[in-house]
TrEMBL record:
It comes from the Eukaryota. Keywords: NADP, Oxidoreductase. Belongs to the short-chain dehydrogenases/reductases (SDR) family. One of its GO terms (molecular function) is oxidoreductase activity. The lineage of its organism: Eukaryota, Fungi, Dikarya, Ascomycota, Pezizomycotina. This is NAD(P)-binding Rossmann-fold containing protein. Its main location: endoplasmic reticulum. The keyword Nucleotide-binding does not apply. GO terms for cellular component: endoplasmic reticulum. Pfam families: adh_short.
Length: 320
């Protein structure tokens, strides 16, 4: 009798485990094999104006990749950055391949805070308020401090470096989005709000403040998604998780199955649009990596993560 009951219990547990495994595999395949719904946001304004995508931090890396991919899909562009010459170079490169793309450039230093940043954001809104913006990509962000270092012991960090990290990774995107939302809502048609998060939000040693800002942005994005649903707004809010990508802070690494280049990552991330989730990895192997990490015992995971970060520190250096 007891043996029979135990068999039934273990059979039930096995059935639940297998069902969950099948569900996870199905969800993974659906997320990365289904066609993107990006075209849903390629619509004319009520007056017939063409759609624009606004990308922050578009002068390098993934932001630059997003610009090329959106131009390829016939969106006009508003490119934000703090270096005008870099933005002009990106604009020229895009126009050489996609000559019909209309591009505007807006300048603001996201590392600043306070009244200066708010004034610059207001100036940007004035420059683009006549455009039909259907997509906002909050891409601006960095783990590199103004002093030039990426990794550091928290107690040794310079206060100005900490403020700059918080400003560029959290304060600027929050304030910028708040000011841009009225433009996105003005046409009363589908809108996409995409925010770059990071696998570092798990809490990476020697990247404590950067990790915290990425966790903040992920939570903020999820909260906005639920808020807009509660308000009945036709806004897709998506947090894109990423790990290492070449052409960014890890540009010294070689491209491989776990480290795509920025353009490939951007194309893949845009492919996730319409997947139905609020948070999703932009690259398939990053999803696999995150899934494996989440199933490791805490001590094992901490050891692996620490060795990995220290390996990177050996390549690029640590401030203190």
């Amino acid at each position: 009798m007891v043996t029979s009951t135990l068999v039934k219990v273990f059979a039930g547990i096995g059935a639940v485990w297998v069902s969950r495994w099948i569900l996870n595999i199905t969800r993974f395949l659906y997320t990365f094999l289904r066609p993107s719904s990006l075209s849903r946001y390629h619509h004319l304004s009520p007056t017939g104006a063409p759609p624009y995508a606004l990308i922050t931090g578009a002068s390098d890396g993934i932001g630059k990749g997003y610009a090329f991919e959106l131009a390829r899909q016939n969106f006009n562009l508003i490119l934000h950055g703090r270096n005008k010459s870099k933005l002009l170079s990106v604009s020229s490169a895009i126009k050489n391949i996609y000559p019909d793309t209309i591009i505007r450039i807006v300048i603001s230093d996201a590392t600043q805070s306070g009244d200066v940043t708010l004034r610059e954001i207001n100036e940007i809104v004035e420059q683009i308020k006549d455009l039909h913006i259907t997509i906002l990509i909050n891409n601006v962000g960095t783990g590199t401090r103004p002093s030039g270092h990426v990794f550091s012991n928290f107690e040794s960090d310079d206060p100005a470096d900490l403020d700059a990290l918080i400003n560029v990774n959290a304060r600027f995107p929050i304030q910028f989005t708040r000011q841009i939302l009225p433009l996105l809502f003005s046409h009363s048609q589908p809108t996409l709000l995409l925010t770059m998060a990071s696998i570092s939000e798990i809490g990476s040693p020697y990247l404590s403040v950067y990790s915290a800002t990425k966790a903040f942005m992920k939570a903020w994005s999820c909260a906005l998604a639920r808020e807009f649903k509660a308000e009945g707004r036709d806004v897709e809010v998506l947090a894109i998780m990423t790990a290492q990508v070449t052409g960014t802070a890890t540009e010294g690494m070689e491209r491989n199955v776990f480290v795509p280049d920025a353009r490939c990552f951007a194309r893949s991330a845009l492919g996730r649009v319409g997947c139905g989730g609020d948070v999703v990895e932009g690259w398939w192997s990053h999803a696999v990596l995150r899934g494996v990490m989440g199933r490791l015992p805490g001590g094992v995971f901490t050891g692996i993560l620490t060795r990995s970060v220290r390996g990177e520190m050996g390549k690029v250096g640590k401030s203190k």
